[in-house]
Amino acid sequence: MDSAVAAIAEWMPRQRWFGGKGHAPALRLIGAFDLPTAEEDARVRTLLVMDDAAEPPILYQVPVVERAVRQHSPAASDHLIGRLSEGGFLYDGPHDRAYTDALLDLIVGEGRAASAGAVASGRYSGGEEDRGGGAAASARPPLSAPATVLGGEQSNTSIIYRPAESAPVICKVFRQLHHGDNPDVTLQTALAASGSPHVPASVGDVHGEWDDVGQPTGRARGHLAFAQEFLPGVEDAWRVALTAAATDSAFTDEARALGAAVAEVHLSLRELFPREQPSEELVDRITAAWSRRLGIAVAEVPELGAQRAAIEAVYARAQAGAWPELQRIHGDLHLGQVLLVPGRGWVLLDFEGEPLRPMHERCRPDLPARDVAGMLRSFDYVAGSTAIALPERAEAAVAWADAARHAFIDGYVAASGLDLSAYRDLLAAFELDKAVYEAIYEARNRPTWAAIPLHAIMSLLESGPLRASPDASAPDRPEPSTPSMA
Ligand SMILES: Nc1ncnc2c1ncn2[C@@H]1O[C@H](COP(=O)(O)OP(=O)(O)O)[C@@H](O)[C@H]1O
Ligand SMILES: O=P(O)(O)O[C@H]1O[C@H](CO)[C@@H](O[C@H]2O[C@H](CO)[C@@H](O)[C@H](O)[C@H]2O)[C@H](O)[C@H]1O
User: Fold this and answer.
1) Non-local CB neighbours of 48 within 8 Å, separated by 6+ positions
2) Which part of the chain is the Maltokinase N-terminal cap domain (predicted)?
């Protein structure tokens, strides 16, 4: 085995983006390419490794820098992957300037790298100036710039470049690779090109090709990285909302505006991408995915077994009810994916869809209710995590979240013109399905938060997608809608 692969296998389970929590990876090298670097001591490699121990196997992108001499700065030591048996040291690429510069150069300089089993091509999609100007006009970035890795809990690894002479850029290195275009790149790029203020401008991307015996041509093709305008100094709404809930500050105006922004993005996506009628086959496919996911959740989170029949009853009602036309959507909308940018309003990020869903499903037209449900769940998460951190604020946080959920729906309905009450059962099913997804996600990634979706599932089964507003007189069993949805 390539000694770099052996070192990566040891190191990978400690990385946030490693999807196979609970098992040691069994890595197989699928392909690798080198990027040119000006640093004599460094070799910049990107390895594509398949974890055959995952079910189904997962293909990861692992950029590394091989150096003959050990780096002694504390930053470098933190990002040492391991020693190579043939001599030399292996570093985590996104934390090493040799890699970050090589990646930026690949995109902005539209380079190409090809070697054993893999090819990568950079594409510069132009700053705002190439599209007639927009929210954040910026010049072409240089080929080299100081870079840092975004901290926090991400499924991918994002590198922020801060060139001295031009606007900052954030480049996301996709960790799990899939055959097919990544909606994060295609949806956001199309929205930005259409003039939508609700997404950052695209800067460019890296497209790759690698060996895949599962494809008829023997090759798979997909995106490896996506660079876009970085909106500096703006906290994501998850953090803003947590602070607001903890201090009992109103968030309803923001939530209403967020609902309107999501509706506007949905209206744009309707125009930009093909739509599909909800044929029987399509309805069956989506409802089968709910049931499949519920089966996985019950196997991984056995406490859910007692709710299975009640959840399935909600799914059956939704399946039999009204369905709107399907269209492209965000796919994994939550507060961590949206930024309230001063002077610009709400901006949506990360159109990649749910990382636990197969990519081919994420790339098909879907129901906007999935996004609405995702955001409703996220407000509930604010209440749930506030209750864990500040038990004395638990009740107030639930009222805060209910008010935000109602305001979000009001904003969405007003801007979309859609009568959501006609799709009440569908929204209930999507919210439950999202909570079921979260139950799996938390069990795998953040077990201390597992109670948040489990509690939500109980309460959704009791009261439907929207509890009564805090100031409304609460009926014994609140109707699963609000007046604004009627
Ligand atoms: N264009 C951007 N401008 C400012 N911050 C961003 C931008 N893109 C991403 N971020 C920050 O990075 C975080 C993670 O980005 P995201 O696209 O959700 O990555 P992942 O797919 O790894 O979850 C976001 O929550 C946001 O805080
Ligand atoms: O990393 P991604 O942004 O692609 O999303 C994944 O991770 C999210 C957690 O970081 C997860 O979101 C869940 O936790 C959020 C709070 O951290 C909460 O606001 C969301 O409602 C909840 O679903 C997301 O589901 C997952 O795909």
Assistant:
1) 29, 30, 31, 32, 59, 60, 61, 62, 117, 118, 177, 208, 210
2) 11-96
Question: For ligand 1, what atom is nearest to the CA of residue 184?
Answer: 17
Q: Is 133 helix (H, G, I), strand (E, B) or coil?
A: coil
Query: Would you place residue 131 in the very low, low, confident or very high pLDDT band (cuts 50, 70, 90)?
Result: very low
Ligand nearest to the CA of 171: 1
211-233 pLDDT, tens digit per residue, is 998 899 989 999 999 999 999 99
Segments making up each domain of the chain, as ranges: 3-229, 237-485
Give the residue ranges of DSSP H helices in 172-279: 183-193, 237-246, 252-272
- Which residues, 6+ apart, have CB-to-CB distance to 103 below 8 Å? 35, 63, 159, 171, 173, 206, 225
The string of pLDDT tens digits covering residues 361-373 is 899 999 999 999 9
Average pLDDT score over residue span 32-60: 95
Q: Tell me which residue has its CA closest to atom 4 in ligand 1.
A: 231
Record the pTM. Answer: 0.89
Strand partners, 47: 32, 62
Q: Which residue has the tokens 């100031």?
A: 471
Average pLDDT of the residues in 133-158 = 78
Site to substitute for ligand 2 among 251, 436, 441, most atoms within 8 A of C-beta: 441
158 lines ligand 2 (CB under 6 A): no
User: Which residues share a beta bridge with 345?
Assistant: 341
Question: Which option is the CATH number for 237-485: 3.90.1200.10, 3.40.50.880, 3.50.50.60, 3.40.50.300?
Answer: 3.90.1200.10
Nearest ligand 2 atom to the CA of 335 is: 19
What is the structure's pLDDT at 129? 45
